[in-house]
């Protein structure tokens, strides 16, 4: 089982995307992704997201906003993945260069037209609708074969 975070950094109606165009034999080759990465021991999801954003982009994220969680059983023939998904609107710093991808600010209106994994189209749409979600996405041979989502549009505060 793998634990990871995935984040979308926003500014001025643009989203920072990683274009996976430099690393050979990359499962994500030529895809566009948000910033993501695996947990290190003892990290909270927020700590992981902030660290990964800094390592992959050079930016220092503040106050990541959790939007949902993805379950991906045996993604790409590997282990099950559990991925916390975030939006980030507050950050400092300057973008860095990377040997595995290019970073590019994409107009929000163009993001869904990029060469994305199919699941991105679903949960980015859910995020744009303001829906907090738990989604399950099943891939086989690189193709999305099924997905489902449970939405939590409001918090029940009766327990407080």
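Q: What amino acid sequence fits the structure above?
A:
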């Amino acid at each position: 089982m793998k634990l990871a975070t995935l984040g979308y950094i926003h500014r001025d109606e643009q989203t920072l995307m990683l274009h996976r165009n430099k690393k050979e034999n990359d499962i994500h080759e030529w895809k566009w992704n948000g910033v993501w990465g695996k947990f290190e021991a003892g990290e909270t999801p927020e700590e992981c997201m902030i660290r990964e954003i800094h390592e992959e982009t050079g930016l220092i994220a503040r106050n990541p906003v959790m939007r949902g969680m993805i379950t991906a059983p045996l993604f790409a023939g590997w282990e099950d993945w559990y991925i916390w998904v975030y939006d980030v609107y507050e950050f400092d710093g300057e973008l860095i260069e990377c040997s595995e991808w290019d970073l590019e600010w994409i107009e929000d209106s163009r993001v869904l037209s990029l060469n994305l994994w199919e699941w991105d189209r679903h949960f980015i749409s859910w995020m744009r609708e303001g829906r907090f979600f738990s989604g399950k996405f099943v891939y086989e041979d690189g193709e999305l074969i099924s997905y489902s989502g449970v939405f939590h549009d409001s918090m029940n505060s009766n327990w407080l």
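Q: And what stands out in the fold?
A: Confidence is low (pLDDT under 50) at residues 156-160.
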